[in-house]
Specification:
Number of domains: 1
Structural class: mainly beta
CATH architecture: Sandwich
Strand order of the largest sheet: 4-3-6-14-11-12
Radius of gyration: 23 Å
Largest sheet: 6 strands, antiparallel
Helix content: 10-25%
Distance between the termini: 58 Å
Number of strands: 18
Order of helices and strands: HEEEEEEEEEEEEHEEEEEE
CATH topology: Immunoglobulin-like
Number of helices: 2
C-alpha cells in the first residue's frame, strides 16, 4: 500500500471519530483545591521553582484552582461516517461540558503574615499590590479583573483547572515574606492556601537566585 494511501486512511479514521454531533451539556462545578507555586523571574520568563527565595522587587506566584470532584460521565453523541453521508450511529464522543460555577467567587484577598512594609504591617491585605496574567501570556492585567475571569463559564472535557500567574508590583521591605491567598464564594465559603516562608534576597547577597 502506498504511503499516501495509508495517510488518507488514517485521516478518514480520525475524521470518523471526530465528527460528532455534540449536544449542549451543562454542568456546575466548585473549586475545592488551591495550590501555590513560587515563580523565579531571573530568566526571560517566570518559571516554577522549589526555592523559597526571591528578590524584594520580584515577588511572584503561580496559583492553580481545581475541582477534584468533577467526574463527567462519557458523552454519547451521534457520529457521522464520512463514507455514508446518511449513516448516523451513537458513538462515544469527546464532547465538552459548558461549565458554570455553583457559587460565584465574590472576593480575593492576599494577606501578609509578616510585615510587608511600614505602611503594610503583618495582617494587611496586599491584593492591590498584584497584577496577574495567564501562563505564557505576558500581558499583565489588573487584579480586579481576575474575579470576572474566574466566574466566566467555560468549556472542558475531562477535568477542571485554572492556572494564573500573579506578580507583586511593590518591593518587600523585610527579609521574609509569607502570604495567605483566600478566595471567598458568594455563599461565604472560603478556599485558601498559604505560601512557604520566602527569604528575601537583595542583590549581592549569597543565595539561590
Amino acid at each position: 500500500m502506498k504511503p499516501l494511501t495509508i495517510l488518507i486512511l488514517i485521516f478518514l479514521i480520525r475524521l470518523t471519530f471526530s465528527c460528532c454531533n455534540c449536544p449542549e451539556q451543562v454542568a456546575s462545578y466548585q473549586f475545592d483545591q488551591l495550590s501555590i507555586q513560587n515563580l523565579d523571574q531571573t530568566g526571560w520568563t517566570a518559571n516554577r521553582t522549589e526555592y523559597n527565595e526571591m528578590h524584594p522587587a520580584a515577588i511572584a506566584f503561580e496559583i492553580t484552582l481545581t475541582d477534584s470532584s468533577f467526574r463527567p460521565p462519557p458523552a454519547i453523541a451521534q457520529a457521522w461516517h464520512p463514507k455514508l453521508s446518511s449513516a448516523m450511529a451513537m458513538q462515544p464522543c469527546e464532547c465538552p461540558y459548558h461549565l458554570f460555577l455553583k457559587h460565584d467567587i465574590s472576593n480575593l484577598s492576599i494577606l501578609t503574615l509578616h510585615d510587608f512594609s511600614s505602611e503594610k504591617p503583618a495582617g494587611s491585605d496586599i491584593v492591590d499590590s498584584f497584577v496577574w496574567q495567564f501562563k505564557w501570556n505576558h500581558l499583565y492585567q489588573p487584579i480586579d479583573s481576575l474575579l470576572p475571569e474566574l466566574n466566566t463559564p467555560f468549556y472542558a472535557k475531562y477535568y477542571i483547572e485554572k492556572t494564573y500567574q500573579l506578580f507583586c508590583t511593590d518591593s518587600v521591605q523585610n527579609d521574609s515574606l509569607q502570604l495567605v491567598f483566600q478566595f471567598q464564594y458568594a455563599n461565604g465559603e472560603i478556599l485558601s492556601d498559604t505560601t512557604d516562608v520566602i527569604a528575601i534576597r537583595i542583590s549581592g547577597e549569597e543565595g539561590s537566585l
